[in-house]
Target: Helix-turn-helix domain-containing protein
Amino acid sequence: MEKKKATNKGGQSHRQNHSITDQLINTNATTQKLFVLACLRERPHSSNELHMRGIYDPRARIFSLRQEGYDISTTWRYEIDVAGIERKIGVYSLLSEVK
Model:
């Protein structure tokens, strides 16, 4: 089954009614950092959520963003992972942008 596509004014094709953070399209570190940043701008995300969206090691991307000056906090909660095991998971929140 083929997905319906829409064309925006710039002529670029995109999926209808979806956010920029729905799908990671590239696995290089820079793209992943930008993707994580976009996710955190929308709302806090757990490492589990980021992993399920295609970020293999969210901790590395969060570390890099912090090194660049983004203020990102980590809190903890328990979540069920893909194997059905309850684990203590980091939840990342963007507190402020780079000044």
Remarks:
- The beta strands are 5-7, 13-15, 45-46, 71-80, 86-96.
- Confidence is low (pLDDT under 50) at residues 1-18.
